[in-house]
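Entry 14. Structure prediction run on the chain below.
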Amino acid sequence: MTAIDGSAGGRPQGNVRRLPPPVPAPRPTVGLDIGGTKTLAALLAPDGEVLAQARLTTQRGPQAVLAVAARAVEGVVRQAGLDVAALDGVGVGVPGLVGYDDGTVRHAVNLGIEGAPMPLARLLGERLGVGVVVDNDLNVAALGAAHLAPEAASRPLDLAFLALGTGLAAGLVLDGVVRRGTGAAGEIGHVPIDPAGPLCPCGQRGCLELYASGTAVERLWPTTTGQPAPVELLAAVTAGDPAARAVWDAYADAVAAAVRMLVLSVDVRHVVLGGGVAQLGAPLLDAVQAALTRQAARSPFLASLTMADRVLLAPGRVPVAAVGAAVLARSTSALAVGPLPAAPRQHHAAAHTPRDRAGEP
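Output returned:
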Protein backbone atom coordinates (compact mmCIF):
# COMPACT_ATOMS: atom_id res chain seq x y z
CA MET A 1 0.00 0.00 0.00
CA THR A 2 1.36 3.42 -0.92
CA ALA A 3 0.88 6.44 1.33
CA ILE A 4 -0.13 9.87 0.07
CA ASP A 5 3.49 11.08 0.24
CA GLY A 6 4.57 8.25 -2.08
CA SER A 7 6.33 6.15 0.57
CA ALA A 8 5.46 2.61 1.47
CA GLY A 9 2.50 2.35 3.79
CA GLY A 10 2.78 1.47 7.45
CA ARG A 11 5.47 2.74 9.79
CA PRO A 12 7.68 5.50 8.25
CA GLN A 13 11.11 4.29 7.19
CA GLY A 14 14.03 6.55 8.08
CA ASN A 15 13.67 10.33 7.97
CA VAL A 16 10.43 11.49 6.38
CA ARG A 17 10.22 15.08 5.15
CA ARG A 18 7.11 16.73 6.47
CA LEU A 19 5.60 19.80 4.90
CA PRO A 20 5.29 22.85 7.20
CA PRO A 21 1.76 23.78 8.18
CA PRO A 22 0.15 26.19 5.74
CA VAL A 23 0.42 29.88 6.58
CA PRO A 24 -3.07 31.40 6.88
CA ALA A 25 -3.81 33.97 4.23
CA PRO A 26 -4.11 37.51 5.61
CA ARG A 27 -7.66 38.64 6.17
CA PRO A 28 -9.32 42.05 6.49
CA THR A 29 -9.80 43.90 9.75
CA VAL A 30 -12.31 46.48 10.98
CA GLY A 31 -11.47 49.59 12.97
CA LEU A 32 -13.89 51.67 15.05
CA ASP A 33 -13.53 55.25 16.23
CA ILE A 34 -16.11 55.71 18.99
CA GLY A 35 -16.63 59.40 19.75
CA GLY A 36 -19.09 61.28 21.88
CA THR A 37 -21.46 61.96 18.96
CA LYS A 38 -20.59 59.46 16.22
CA THR A 39 -19.08 56.01 15.73
CA LEU A 40 -17.01 55.59 12.56
CA ALA A 41 -16.06 52.22 11.07
CA ALA A 42 -13.52 51.29 8.38
CA LEU A 43 -12.93 47.93 6.72
CA LEU A 44 -9.26 47.52 5.86
CA ALA A 45 -8.06 45.01 3.26
CA PRO A 46 -4.82 43.04 3.85
CA ASP A 47 -3.07 45.31 1.32
CA GLY A 48 -4.09 48.40 3.30
CA GLU A 49 -6.90 49.62 1.09
CA VAL A 50 -10.05 50.96 2.76
CA LEU A 51 -12.82 48.77 1.36
CA ALA A 52 -15.84 50.30 3.11
CA GLN A 53 -16.82 52.93 5.66
CA ALA A 54 -19.80 53.42 7.96
CA ARG A 55 -21.06 56.08 10.35
CA LEU A 56 -23.55 55.61 13.17
CA THR A 57 -24.78 57.87 15.93
CA THR A 58 -23.13 57.05 19.27
CA GLN A 59 -25.48 56.29 22.14
CA ARG A 60 -24.54 56.78 25.78
CA GLY A 61 -24.05 54.07 28.36
CA PRO A 62 -22.02 50.82 28.34
CA GLN A 63 -24.70 48.61 26.77
CA ALA A 64 -25.64 51.22 24.15
CA VAL A 65 -21.98 51.80 23.21
CA LEU A 66 -21.53 48.04 22.85
CA ALA A 67 -24.64 47.65 20.69
CA VAL A 68 -23.69 50.50 18.34
CA ALA A 69 -20.13 49.17 18.03
CA ALA A 70 -21.40 45.72 17.07
CA ARG A 71 -23.83 47.17 14.51
CA ALA A 72 -21.05 49.29 13.01
CA VAL A 73 -18.82 46.25 12.51
CA GLU A 74 -21.61 44.14 11.05
CA GLY A 75 -22.74 46.95 8.76
CA VAL A 76 -19.34 47.79 7.32
CA VAL A 77 -18.49 44.16 6.50
CA ARG A 78 -21.93 43.70 4.95
CA GLN A 79 -21.19 46.58 2.57
CA ALA A 80 -18.28 44.58 1.19
CA GLY A 81 -20.31 41.38 0.90
CA LEU A 82 -18.42 39.72 3.76
CA ASP A 83 -19.29 38.15 7.08
CA VAL A 84 -17.78 39.02 10.47
CA ALA A 85 -16.27 35.53 10.58
CA ALA A 86 -14.03 36.56 7.65
CA LEU A 87 -12.22 39.15 9.78
CA ASP A 88 -8.81 38.80 11.38
CA GLY A 89 -9.93 41.05 14.21
CA VAL A 90 -11.45 44.36 15.28
CA GLY A 91 -9.67 47.40 16.69
CA VAL A 92 -11.44 50.09 18.69
CA GLY A 93 -10.36 53.63 19.54
CA VAL A 94 -12.18 55.30 22.43
CA PRO A 95 -11.72 58.38 24.62
CA GLY A 96 -11.21 58.08 28.36
CA LEU A 97 -8.80 55.94 30.37
CA VAL A 98 -8.02 52.80 28.40
CA GLY A 99 -6.37 49.69 29.78
CA TYR A 100 -4.62 48.63 26.59
CA ASP A 101 -3.42 45.34 28.11
CA ASP A 102 -6.84 44.17 29.30
CA GLY A 103 -9.18 46.01 26.91
CA THR A 104 -11.04 47.98 29.57
CA VAL A 105 -12.43 51.52 29.36
CA ARG A 106 -13.25 53.83 32.26
CA HIS A 107 -13.99 57.49 32.85
CA ALA A 108 -15.17 57.93 29.24
CA VAL A 109 -17.55 60.68 30.33
CA ASN A 110 -18.71 61.57 26.80
CA LEU A 111 -19.77 57.94 26.28
CA GLY A 112 -21.55 57.59 29.61
CA ILE A 113 -19.01 55.03 30.83
CA GLU A 114 -18.27 55.83 34.46
CA GLY A 115 -17.77 53.92 37.67
CA ALA A 116 -16.52 50.37 37.18
CA PRO A 117 -14.24 49.70 34.19
CA MET A 118 -16.07 48.37 31.13
CA PRO A 119 -14.37 45.28 29.60
CA LEU A 120 -15.10 46.47 26.08
CA ALA A 121 -12.68 44.14 24.27
CA ARG A 122 -14.10 41.04 25.95
CA LEU A 123 -17.75 42.02 25.56
CA LEU A 124 -17.46 43.04 21.91
CA GLY A 125 -15.33 39.99 21.13
CA GLU A 126 -17.90 37.65 22.64
CA ARG A 127 -20.70 39.37 20.76
CA LEU A 128 -18.97 39.24 17.36
CA GLY A 129 -16.94 36.04 17.71
CA VAL A 130 -13.65 37.68 16.72
CA GLY A 131 -10.65 39.07 18.55
CA VAL A 132 -10.89 42.70 19.70
CA VAL A 133 -8.23 45.15 20.86
CA VAL A 134 -8.96 48.56 22.40
CA ASP A 135 -6.74 51.65 22.59
CA ASN A 136 -6.98 55.39 23.20
CA ASP A 137 -8.50 57.34 20.32
CA LEU A 138 -5.42 59.51 19.86
CA ASN A 139 -3.14 56.50 19.60
CA VAL A 140 -5.20 54.93 16.85
CA ALA A 141 -5.48 58.30 15.08
CA ALA A 142 -1.69 58.51 15.02
CA LEU A 143 -1.51 54.94 13.66
CA GLY A 144 -4.03 55.82 10.97
CA ALA A 145 -2.15 58.94 9.94
CA ALA A 146 1.07 56.93 9.72
CA HIS A 147 -0.64 54.24 7.63
CA LEU A 148 -2.01 56.85 5.21
CA ALA A 149 1.25 58.82 4.89
CA PRO A 150 2.71 58.74 1.35
CA GLU A 151 5.97 57.05 2.39
CA ALA A 152 4.36 54.54 4.78
CA ALA A 153 5.09 51.56 2.52
CA SER A 154 8.82 52.28 2.28
CA ARG A 155 9.90 52.72 5.92
CA PRO A 156 8.68 52.89 9.53
CA LEU A 157 7.54 56.40 10.35
CA ASP A 158 8.03 58.87 13.19
CA LEU A 159 4.81 60.86 13.35
CA ALA A 160 2.70 62.87 15.78
CA PHE A 161 -1.05 63.34 15.43
CA LEU A 162 -1.81 66.69 17.05
CA ALA A 163 -5.50 66.88 18.03
CA LEU A 164 -6.86 70.43 18.11
CA GLY A 165 -10.15 69.70 19.81
CA THR A 166 -11.74 70.58 23.11
CA GLY A 167 -8.34 69.85 24.60
CA LEU A 168 -4.85 69.53 23.14
CA ALA A 169 -2.77 66.36 23.03
CA ALA A 170 -0.74 64.28 20.59
CA GLY A 171 -0.65 60.62 19.67
CA LEU A 172 2.87 59.42 18.88
CA VAL A 173 4.13 56.76 16.46
CA LEU A 174 7.90 56.29 16.72
CA ASP A 175 9.68 53.90 14.36
CA GLY A 176 6.25 52.66 13.32
CA VAL A 177 5.19 51.78 16.88
CA VAL A 178 2.71 53.62 19.12
CA ARG A 179 4.44 55.25 22.07
CA ARG A 180 2.19 54.81 25.10
CA GLY A 181 4.60 55.29 27.99
CA THR A 182 2.84 54.96 31.31
CA GLY A 183 -0.14 56.92 30.04
CA ALA A 184 1.08 60.51 29.65
CA ALA A 185 2.95 60.28 26.33
CA GLY A 186 1.97 63.21 24.10
CA GLU A 187 0.19 65.20 26.82
CA ILE A 188 1.82 68.44 25.67
CA GLY A 189 -1.36 70.42 26.32
CA HIS A 190 -0.42 70.56 29.99
CA VAL A 191 3.06 71.97 29.50
CA PRO A 192 2.92 75.53 30.93
CA ILE A 193 4.14 78.20 28.52
CA ASP A 194 3.12 81.18 30.68
CA PRO A 195 3.39 80.67 34.47
CA ALA A 196 1.40 83.88 34.95
CA GLY A 197 -1.32 82.84 32.51
CA PRO A 198 -4.91 81.78 33.22
CA LEU A 199 -5.71 78.85 35.48
CA CYS A 200 -5.98 75.50 33.68
CA PRO A 201 -8.45 72.81 34.85
CA CYS A 202 -5.40 70.63 35.57
CA GLY A 203 -4.37 73.03 38.37
CA GLN A 204 -1.44 74.70 36.60
CA ARG A 205 -1.35 78.12 35.00
CA GLY A 206 -0.71 79.05 31.39
CA CYS A 207 -0.84 75.54 29.91
CA LEU A 208 -0.42 75.27 26.14
CA GLU A 209 -3.95 73.85 25.89
CA LEU A 210 -5.34 77.24 26.93
CA TYR A 211 -3.88 78.83 23.78
CA ALA A 212 -3.83 76.12 21.06
CA SER A 213 -7.03 74.05 21.52
CA GLY A 214 -10.49 74.44 20.08
CA THR A 215 -11.64 75.70 23.46
CA ALA A 216 -8.99 78.42 23.21
CA VAL A 217 -10.57 79.66 19.98
CA GLU A 218 -13.96 79.79 21.69
CA ARG A 219 -12.47 81.83 24.52
CA LEU A 220 -10.58 84.22 22.21
CA TRP A 221 -13.43 84.63 19.67
CA PRO A 222 -16.85 83.86 21.20
CA THR A 223 -19.35 82.87 18.54
CA THR A 224 -22.26 85.19 17.76
CA THR A 225 -23.89 83.32 14.87
CA GLY A 226 -24.21 79.82 16.28
CA GLN A 227 -21.48 78.49 13.98
CA PRO A 228 -18.39 76.83 15.50
CA ALA A 229 -16.02 79.51 16.79
CA PRO A 230 -13.14 78.51 14.46
CA VAL A 231 -15.44 78.80 11.41
CA GLU A 232 -16.71 82.19 12.52
CA LEU A 233 -13.18 83.41 13.25
CA LEU A 234 -11.91 82.39 9.82
CA ALA A 235 -14.87 84.12 8.15
CA ALA A 236 -14.05 87.34 10.02
CA VAL A 237 -10.39 87.08 9.01
CA THR A 238 -11.40 86.58 5.38
CA ALA A 239 -13.66 89.65 5.64
CA GLY A 240 -10.70 91.75 6.77
CA ASP A 241 -11.55 92.21 10.46
CA PRO A 242 -8.29 93.39 12.14
CA ALA A 243 -9.29 92.08 15.57
CA ALA A 244 -10.00 88.65 14.07
CA ARG A 245 -6.63 88.76 12.29
CA ALA A 246 -4.85 89.37 15.62
CA VAL A 247 -6.64 86.43 17.25
CA TRP A 248 -5.97 84.20 14.22
CA ASP A 249 -2.25 84.99 14.22
CA ALA A 250 -1.99 84.41 17.98
CA TYR A 251 -3.72 81.05 17.61
CA ALA A 252 -1.45 80.03 14.73
CA ASP A 253 1.57 80.97 16.85
CA ALA A 254 0.29 78.76 19.68
CA VAL A 255 -0.26 75.76 17.39
CA ALA A 256 3.20 76.37 15.93
CA ALA A 257 4.57 76.24 19.50
CA ALA A 258 2.93 72.80 19.91
CA VAL A 259 4.51 71.63 16.66
CA ARG A 260 7.89 72.96 17.75
CA MET A 261 7.57 71.18 21.11
CA LEU A 262 6.91 67.85 19.39
CA VAL A 263 9.73 68.21 16.87
CA LEU A 264 12.28 69.32 19.46
CA SER A 265 11.35 66.55 21.92
CA VAL A 266 11.01 63.47 19.68
CA ASP A 267 12.09 64.77 16.24
CA VAL A 268 9.07 63.36 14.40
CA ARG A 269 9.19 63.50 10.61
CA HIS A 270 5.56 64.65 10.39
CA VAL A 271 3.13 66.48 12.66
CA VAL A 272 -0.41 65.84 11.40
CA LEU A 273 -3.07 68.36 12.44
CA GLY A 274 -6.39 66.75 13.34
CA GLY A 275 -9.40 67.34 15.54
CA GLY A 276 -12.20 69.84 15.17
CA VAL A 277 -10.17 72.98 14.40
CA ALA A 278 -8.19 71.15 11.70
CA GLN A 279 -11.41 70.88 9.70
CA LEU A 280 -10.70 74.46 8.64
CA GLY A 281 -8.27 72.85 6.22
CA ALA A 282 -5.73 74.72 4.09
CA PRO A 283 -6.15 78.17 5.72
CA LEU A 284 -5.14 76.73 9.10
CA LEU A 285 -2.24 74.78 7.61
CA ASP A 286 -0.97 77.86 5.78
CA ALA A 287 -1.20 79.97 8.96
CA VAL A 288 0.69 77.45 11.10
CA GLN A 289 3.38 76.96 8.47
CA ALA A 290 3.76 80.76 8.13
CA ALA A 291 4.13 81.07 11.92
CA LEU A 292 6.83 78.40 11.95
CA THR A 293 8.63 80.13 9.10
CA ARG A 294 8.53 83.49 10.93
CA GLN A 295 9.89 81.91 14.09
CA ALA A 296 12.65 80.11 12.18
CA ALA A 297 13.76 83.36 10.53
CA ARG A 298 15.16 84.46 13.89
CA SER A 299 17.02 81.22 14.58
CA PRO A 300 19.42 79.40 12.24
CA PHE A 301 18.95 76.33 14.44
CA LEU A 302 15.18 76.27 13.95
CA ALA A 303 15.60 77.05 10.26
CA SER A 304 17.80 73.97 9.87
CA LEU A 305 14.96 71.74 11.12
CA THR A 306 12.51 72.79 8.35
CA MET A 307 9.57 72.46 10.71
CA ALA A 308 7.06 74.10 8.38
CA ASP A 309 7.62 71.32 5.86
CA ARG A 310 6.81 68.68 8.46
CA VAL A 311 3.25 69.86 9.14
CA LEU A 312 0.40 68.12 7.33
CA LEU A 313 -3.38 68.02 7.54
CA ALA A 314 -5.15 64.79 8.43
CA PRO A 315 -6.69 63.39 5.22
CA GLY A 316 -10.39 64.11 5.01
CA ARG A 317 -11.40 61.33 2.62
CA VAL A 318 -11.26 58.53 5.23
CA PRO A 319 -11.82 58.28 9.00
CA VAL A 320 -8.20 58.38 10.15
CA ALA A 321 -8.73 57.01 13.66
CA ALA A 322 -10.94 54.16 12.44
CA VAL A 323 -8.27 53.22 9.87
CA GLY A 324 -5.66 53.28 12.63
CA ALA A 325 -7.81 51.01 14.81
CA ALA A 326 -8.01 48.54 11.91
CA VAL A 327 -4.22 48.68 11.54
CA LEU A 328 -3.89 48.01 15.27
CA ALA A 329 -6.16 44.98 14.96
CA ARG A 330 -4.02 43.36 12.28
CA SER A 331 -0.70 44.17 13.96
CA THR A 332 -1.66 42.91 17.43
CA SER A 333 -0.88 39.23 17.96
CA ALA A 334 -2.94 36.75 19.95
CA LEU A 335 -6.15 38.71 20.00
CA ALA A 336 -8.54 36.88 22.29
CA VAL A 337 -12.28 36.44 22.41
CA GLY A 338 -13.50 36.45 26.00
CA PRO A 339 -11.52 37.27 29.16
CA LEU A 340 -7.91 38.24 28.56
CA PRO A 341 -5.05 36.95 30.74
CA ALA A 342 -3.97 39.22 33.56
CA ALA A 343 -1.38 41.73 32.42
CA PRO A 344 1.78 42.52 34.41
CA ARG A 345 0.94 46.21 34.25
CA GLN A 346 -1.74 48.49 32.86
CA HIS A 347 -1.25 51.78 31.08
CA HIS A 348 -3.48 54.58 32.31
CA ALA A 349 -3.76 58.15 31.20
CA ALA A 350 -3.16 60.95 33.67
CA ALA A 351 -5.87 61.68 36.24
CA HIS A 352 -6.84 64.81 34.32
CA THR A 353 -6.15 64.40 30.66
CA PRO A 354 -7.17 66.13 27.43
CA ARG A 355 -7.23 62.72 25.73
CA ASP A 356 -10.81 62.44 26.99
CA ARG A 357 -11.62 65.64 25.14
CA ALA A 358 -9.33 66.02 22.15
CA GLY A 359 -10.92 63.82 19.51
CA GLU A 360 -13.98 65.85 18.58
CA PRO A 361 -14.72 69.56 18.40
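The longest helix spans residues 242-266.
Filed with the rest of this week's runs.
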